[in-house]
Known about the structure:
The complex is a heterodimer of chains A (194) and B (47).
Chain A: H1 7-35, H2 38-70, H3 78-99, H4 103-118, H5 120-130, H6 150-193
Chain B: H1 4-46
Amino acid sequence: MGVIQKIFYVHVSCAFSAFVAFGTCFYANLRYVFTREPQSDWLGVSAAEVGLAFITVVLVTGPIWAHPVWGIWWTWDARLTLTFVLGLLYLSYLLLRSMVEEPDKRALFSALFGIFAFLDVPLVYFSIRWWRTQHPQPVILGGPGSGLEPRMRVSYLLMWGALTGLLILLLSARYRLEALRASVDELRREADVR
Amino acid sequence: MKNLDSVLAAYLAGWAIFFVYYISVAQRMSTLREEVERLKALLSKGK
């Protein structure tokens, strides 16, 4: 495949990091439904937004790899379509939040929608195992005959480690933003009362 | 090297998306911090 193979490191690492972010969002959404803690809502929206940034990188780098290799930028096969739908689901999650004014209702609606949206993550992951797709077959955790060469494995793990670090940094920054937003709402209510 | 431009484009696009996202978080944070200061000043005046 030549030098174009190097896109694999950013593309696949971002996909796994996006799954981690959406998994965090799913956990936070479930936690909110059972506990109604605002902190779970803050974590949910932060993880959804950061995950959307990562999945956007996946959706941009994939076609850049596909064009020279397949001769086309995009095809509506199961993996690509489900990944595109995943991006749209989390974009809808964020849009839904902006449409509901009342904080408790907004948190509950988005938590329920987030739980539903996460159902697409296993579908994306298993799509290349369940259906014949244009997308390459699994290289990592793909069963017998799959796997990376040792040097590629080191590069991949370094890249994934770096992107996981970036994920944690972005998630903590976004969480602080949401906590600050809650403080602003609190101060506004206090100012309105006086 | 064939397709090196595609590799560069992919990595540049990836980091650009993260950079723009981080800038948007930082801008929103700065706006909210200003709002906190404004509201605190408003509340302390009202005391």
